[in-house]
Write a structure and sequence with these properties.
mainly alpha, 2 domains, four-stranded antiparallel beta sheet, 13 helices, flat
Length: 375
Amino acid sequence: MAAKRSEFIVAVKEFKDYLSSWFFLAIFGLLVLIMIASIVTGTGTYNNQLSTYNSELSRAASVATGGAAFQPQMPSMMLVFESFSSIFVLVGWALPIVIGFSLISKEKESGSLKLLLARPTFRDSIINGKILGSTAILVLSLAAAFLVGLAILLLEGIVPSGDDLLRLGTFFILVVFFSISFLAIAIAASALAKNSTMAILIAIVLVLFSLMVPYFADSICQVVLGNAPTAMIPATGSSSTGGSSSTGGATGGSGGNIVVQYGGGGRNSTNTVRMQINPDYTTYMNTRNQITEALDLISPTSDLTGISNVVVSGEQSPVSTSGAAGMFNFRGRGMSSPTLGNTLPSLLPQILSLLVIVIAGFAIAYAKFVRMDVR
């Protein structure tokens, strides 16, 4: 009971210290400004799509002649938050890093850690209280920013539906999870470093690593796997035949083969070769995609990008397919996106990855703090 009371006292102290920190207040103010600017921008996009929806609805009603007419889907309120999510992926690490980088190192620099440990308080109670206090101020800050955004929507007359509120609540929880992962990284850096300057340098290096992993993934695959095999090879048992056509081209063949025609030796003749996809190329690309996805998982920013694709943008999977050839863009065509319940399981790898980062960061900070020599 006494240990829990000590943790609570330390947590309250940390919470109050942040409220009086100009550095924290400046970063928090920046977060709120980003939210306001993003919501204002997103509201304009939403209103434009709403006007398009009303026009298509009127046109569908006017052309309906006895049969079932195509009914466009009303745009989701979550379109408003797409701008915020794309910006937060890049700068959302700043607030948790500011909160956590000096959590322990500042106590060592000022000498207050010796006085704190001289009291009849267990070390684990101190580090637990610090983690609780920093997590509480982080969650409260994010909740305040989201409430500001929601208030702007209501003032603009945009009322979220039940599905919108479910998606927004899910997105908020996962944004908190994402932010706590960077908080854990910052606290671990604070415990390992000798001073606050070194702590923030370590934290920033890890942030840069998280931001750059997606850009280096292709290069890493190139080094590990080498060059890709030829995509198309002659089909097994294919043969060349002559013809009278003088034009070249490619047509579909049976069994997934492609028929390629090209000019032959005769003046009016062509040669035909049946081509097929190289199995080695298929294996290579599957392996490459698996390595890329695995590398992306160790990056919290990539995890949040995937989460935003599913929860905010209504994609079917964390890998955005809106611009991929042959993929159907549901919202872009005015149709209903897959339900959150159907797509949320696809985020399990991203959620587990964030969980591992949180546990690892707090475990490192805890282990280092309880064994720290402050003499």
